[in-house]
Structures are given as structure tokens and as C-alpha cells.
Amino acid sequence: MKTRTTLSFVCLIFSFTNVAFAQMGIGTTSPDASSMLELKSTAKGMLVPRMTLVQKTAISSPATGLLVYQTNGLAGFWYYDGTQWIYLSTANAWALTGNDATTDGVNFLGTTDDIPFNVKVNSIAAGRIGSSTEGNTMFGFSAGLNNSYNGSTFVGYKAGLTNSTGSGNTALGWSALKANSLGANNTAVGYASLYTATTGVDNTGCGMYSLYSNATGNQNTACGTGALYTNTGDGNSALGQNALYTNSSGTYNSALGVNGLRLCTSGNRNVSAGYNALQAVTTSNNNVGIGYTAGSSVTTGSNNTFLGANADAAGASAATLTNATAIGYNAKVNASNSLVLGNTTAGSLVKVGISVASPSSTLSFDGTAARSIGMERNSSSGTAGFSLTVQSGGAFSGGTNLAGGDLILSSGISTGTNTSNIYFQVPTASGTGTTDNTPATKMTILAGGNVGINNTTPGATLDVNGSVSYSSVRIVNGGNYQVAASDYCVINTGAIGTWTWPTTTVAGKVLILVNQGSGAITTSTAYRTATGTTTSTIAVATSVQLIYDSVNTVWRKIN
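Now predict its structure.
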């Protein structure tokens, strides 16, 4: 009873004191004027209500400012801010000036639940590490500020600033991917890389201003300052400072090297590799330039190929050439549909070897097997074949009394007693209209100098198997022969045969027939002798001189 009476008395004292003085001191006779209650001790402390998490949560209508000490879970002081319980414990807190005595793997800055960790500057988002289900990582003032989707990484001032539902994006650098909203799977590394991208997907920019203006283009790759700067097209690749810099709507272009395809705007499927390669191409397609300044003179020409340092188009139409190819250092081509091999500087003779490492001729083939040079058959139905011309060099145009170059046809070098020959082949017409006519040898030049016509083994300097015509003189090697209206003298050197008179004759035409063959010649109709008789025979080792009698339509002998 004594304890209860004493407690009641103290409470009564407290009540009167509170009413009379509105402040009270325990352990002091002069409480601070700003306090209602001051507790003062150097040996004891104040003990607030202690309870479990469940008990704290069960408090009905907690007053704002209510203070308790939670004994389990996240133990420590908690106060109610009018809406929720706030943890007040400062144990293991990170100090503004840094901490010491930390343990790696134990101490950390972050959360212990699956809630994103956020950092702010001036109350504006400046960093975020997403939860396990979100997968976003952002660091930098306003980086990913408007992001509402998962799987993106934004590092840098305003990197990915306006990204809303775009996913799988990565931006590293000042304002990289700043304007992106719906675009996905983009990667931007560098100051303002992919700056204006909005809905494009699968783009990669690496370097200051790379793919800067790309808004809706897809599947582009740019590496280098200003690479693909103005691009909006799809499927382009640029590696090098200002490579494909002005490309706007061009697609599927590839540029490797500083200024490669720099001025291309709407050209498609161009490929460049090397400093300034194809740098002037604007709207043309399907050009290839590989090598230092390769193809740098072409602007609107298409389907050209330049391989080698300084390989380029030349001449007044260089900018617009089409289907032109220049291969080799300083090779220059100045006509469309042309191929140039090697340096075109005067005196720079180029030799081409096919399976030959050290060609000895302008065009050399490997000598271990027979080779052929031919023109393919016409592939157009019902169309005849075209001619192939071989011509030696002409003299300088406008020069006085200058000789043209000789055309030399040579067979292969032989050794010892062996030789080599030259054969000319042409096909002989067949009896049907669709049968292929296989070329056969019609002229032979032997190593000893003998020439055979229709004879592959000539035994004389000129050995002809058949007729020979020297203007109006014709040599016939036996057999039947139709005398031509243009013939003046016909000489037989072969066996017997029948000769037919010319189908067209004029009065007074003279014709000399000589038989030096092995048998008599028979004429198709008889001719009159000088005595008026008729005969149709020209004997061996004889000759007759005839004149045409147009009145009687008969040939008359005049010798």
C-alpha cells in the first residue's frame, strides 16, 4: 500500500506542476526553458516502451511522433510520421565524411529487400539499381528519368532520359540515347551517341555523335566520332571518324576508315574500306572502294569497283561512270563497262599472271598444261555469234608518217631438233541447220616456213589442196569446177574433172583454160575449134584461149 500511495502522490505532484509551471525537471531543479520535461543523469538513461514488430504494428491509431523500441526483426527505435513507421536506428550508418573499419562482403550501401535502390541530386533522380524483376541500372543526373520498362542500362548525364517502354537498351555517355522512347536493343557509347533515337531498334553507336540523328533507323552500327551522324536508314555499318557521316536514307552500306562514304545520302549497298574511300558517293548504289582514296571521284555512278590505293575513276565522266573496275595501285578507269588492271601512269607496264608468280608477258599462263582463250557462244536464242578482233597498237593520233604497231603471232619456243607450228581453224558448214560445226584446221604454217591451205603437211612453200585465185587467175587442184564470171585464167594442177562454163557472160569475154594435171578436162558443153569443129575436151599439157560468141551463145577457140 505504501508503494501505491507514493506513486499516486508523485503523479499528483506531476499534475499540479504541469498545470502550474508547464515544465518539469527530473534530476535537475532548473529544467531548460524550452522544454516541458528535462531528464538529467550521468548514470542512468530513459527507457521507452519496448515491443515486438507485431505489437508495434498492432498499436491502434498511433499518434504522429509516437516513439517505440522494436526488439525483433530490424531492431531499434521507430517513430510514426502520421502515415507509416520510420526506422531511426543509426547503427552501422554511412557517414557523410566516409566510414572506416568496414568489412568487405559485410558492410554495404543498399537495401536488404527486393526494392530498387535510388540516388537523387536536388531531389531529381541521379541513380537507380533495379530490383531482381526490373533489371534496370541507371547512374547520372536524370539518367533514365522517365523509364518505365525493364532491362536497360543508362550511365551518364541524361542518358536514356526519355526512354519509356523501350527495353534492352544500353547508353553510356552524356545524353546518349537521350530521346529514345520505344526503341529496343540499342547500344550507345559516347557523348550524344544515338542522341535523337526514338523508335529504332538493334542499333549500336560507339563514339562522340555516332548515329546522332538516327531516329527510326534499325540494325545500324557506327563506331567513330560522327560515324553515321545523320543516318535514318537501315542496316548500315560505319567504322571510322565521319564514316557515312551524311547518310540519311541509304541502306545496307558499309564504310571502314576515316571519311569512308562520307557524303553518301541515299545510296544503297556501297562498300568502302580505307581513308576517303568512296568519300564523294552521294546517291549511287553497289560501288566498292577498297584502299586509300579508292573511288573517291565517283559521285552518282553505280556498280563500280576500285581495289588498291588511289584506284579511281578518271576523265570528264569520272563522277558518273557505271560498271567500271580499276584494280591495282593508281589504276585509273575513264570509261563505263571497262576493266583496268594496274598502275596507269605512263611507263608502268603491268604483267598479269594466271597461276604464274612471275609473268614474263603482259598476260601469262602457267605452262604445265594446254590453255585456250575463247569467246563464249551467244546466249540469246536465234542470234548469230559476234566477231572477235585482235589489233596491234595504233600510232599517236595526229602524228606525221607514224607507223602502227606490228601484229606478231608466234608459236611456242622449242629446243633441239623439235619445232612448233601454227594452225588456223574454221568450221565447215554441215548439211543441217542446227548441227554444231566443229572447227577444223584450214591453214598450217610449219616451222620450216611451208604454208599449207587445206593441207596440214605442206610439202612446198605454198601447198594448196583446192583451187587458188590470183585476182582473175585461179588454180584448181583437180575435180569438178564451176568457172566464175570473173575468172580470166583457170589452171588445173590435179586429176580429171568436169568444168562448167560461167553462168553469166558478155560478148567478147576472153577465157584461158590450162590443163597441167594428170588427166583430160571435160567441159560441160562443147566449144568450137578454130576449124569450126566442136569438142568438149582439154587434153593434158595443153591450153586453149576462148572468146564468147553471144550471137550463137557458144565459146570459140581463138588460138
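Residues 1-38 form one domain.
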